[in-house]
């Protein structure tokens, strides 16, 4: 106060050794704290004075995980006269009580990461982004790989659930994109991959996972089941990646993609932009990685199936059709996350889209009408009550047309005409164009005219042009030997 008589408050406070705010407070209230009157008490009675120690504390001790809102609702049931405004007071009081008397909580230990030591894998749900492929919602996940030291990331679109196949494919894609392998690889508990597996199958999956890591010189590890923070360096990155994808979709203006390859390219572009921000650190960490082996290892599951008389086989509760010439054959099936590769011996036959069983346990169907149309032409009435009839139609227009044919005429005529339409689509390679014509007929309220459609999509492959070949006389070839003109 003596300094204040000659110099400003800020300078006097600085010389006295305290802040300018304290100087202004003393200027307006020069009374010492020791001689100030006691602070005022409560202005209204404590609504919890009679019940907190006697009722709330026993509840908190009996059920340590009980939420404050649960305690509040129980008190309102026991004491209807309590004001609803007591909720905030109760929450503050419970928080203060737990700080003094509560149970010990789990501690998160921050880790120091070294370059080239650790790679992390996990899966994250992406269904809430509203992505559509070819007009249909895409229910999918992302396999997410990350190096915690440099921040390198890789993401791979997964169509099914968490599985060893998805992990193996995504991990190998990430390592070959990175150009090296870390010393250790950590994933989650893989509990989803082990679901519905017996003990022998579970041990086999564990052996394959260990062999996969050994192939790349990595030491495998898994965090404890249900303890997500043990994989925290990638769990927290999930949210940032999903936010980046969501922003990119908004900037793109549409979540619709023509096909799955276009969406996968979009994800690669988003992840690539994020990696460019960490380019220098990623280059430094690459020098500390193990070199990759000469080749990739298997990222599929191999199963032997037998083609039944239905010209199909069933794998993991999904019914797949194949050409009827394979009936009775045993096929070797390599099952990937999004496809099946079929082999007879060592000969690759074809690739099928991988199907998924329904969530309610019903079987799925992957049906190609081209595999069955030759038999349906001989037995068209089989279409009427075919188990997989809806999956047989390649487009919605065919299904709607069949429903219209059933409404307008007899079942026999509807089946015959529908099989003729499918045969036309196959034999004349006009599936999409024929679907457009069928939609036009439906919109106009008329049934398809087979004669008109046959003429429209002519020529028929059964009608071949007449070819006349004129043969030259053999004497004309003598001129070639003598060098003269023919």
From TrEMBL:
Residues 111-299 form the Integrase catalytic domain. InterPro entries: Integrase_cat-core, RNaseH-like_sf. Transmembrane segments: none annotated. It comes from the Bacteria. GO terms for biological process: DNA integration. SUPFAM superfamilies: Ribonuclease H-like. This is Integrase-like protein.
